[in-house]
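FORM 12-B: Structure-to-Sequence Request
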């Protein structure tokens, strides 16, 4: 943020003296470690929030409390909020009623507004990173059908499952299910990126 503390990485916008926020100014005067973690007192909600974020080239990772699902948590206006939802709302305005916020980067701890988009629950469910960890094929939507000794392809969208066929070749099965998702699941970024 321009006009804030000149210490690298400090998100505090209010400057005390010598170009530093109060905490870094006092540390400099006392010869203390300038990079030690700090507790921000009397800070704005914006300052309290961003001091808990580690900004990398891609994701802005929430470094404070995470819930059981891996989403950042932040106390704001007397309630605990998901950090990524606050980051999105502060950057883009109110989240439409009933909408979720989808992480296009697949990192639940990320609060980079450029990595967040509003989505319905169904759209959010389309944007998976790949096959589930227990997949025998390693390919999303392709499973081994033991009775036939072949690969089975399925896709699910809008609560409805679509059978796409049986295939002897795994690559062919993957191609069929990928093409189907590309046409019917626009929020499945892994498939849209393969088309580019």
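FORM 12-B RESPONSE
SEQUENCE OUT:
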């Amino acid at each position: 943020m321009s006009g804030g503390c000149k210490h690298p990485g400090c998100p505090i916008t209010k400057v005390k003296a010598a170009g530093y926020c109060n905490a870094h100014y006092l540390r400099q005067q006392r010869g203390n470690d300038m990079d030690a973690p700090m507790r921000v007192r009397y800070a704005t909600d914006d300052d309290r929030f961003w001091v808990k974020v580690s900004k990398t080239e891609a994701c802005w990772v929430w470094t404070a409390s995470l819930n059981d699902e891996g989403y950042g948590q932040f106390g704001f206006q007397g309630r605990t909020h998901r950090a990524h939802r606050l980051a999105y709302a502060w950057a883009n305005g109110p989240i439409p009623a009933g909408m979720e916020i989808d992480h296009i980067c697949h990192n639940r701890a990320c609060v980079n507004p450029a990595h967040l988009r509003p989505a319905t629950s169904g759209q959010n469910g389309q944007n998976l990173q790949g096959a589930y960890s227990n997949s025998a094929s390693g390919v999303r939507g392709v499973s081994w059908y033991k009775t036939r000794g072949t690969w089975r392809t399925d896709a699910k969208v809008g609560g409805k499952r679509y059978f796409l066929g049986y295939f002897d070749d795994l690559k062919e099965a993957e191609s069929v299910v990928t093409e189907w998702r590309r046409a019917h699941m626009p929020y499945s970024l892994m498939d849209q990126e393969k088309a580019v």
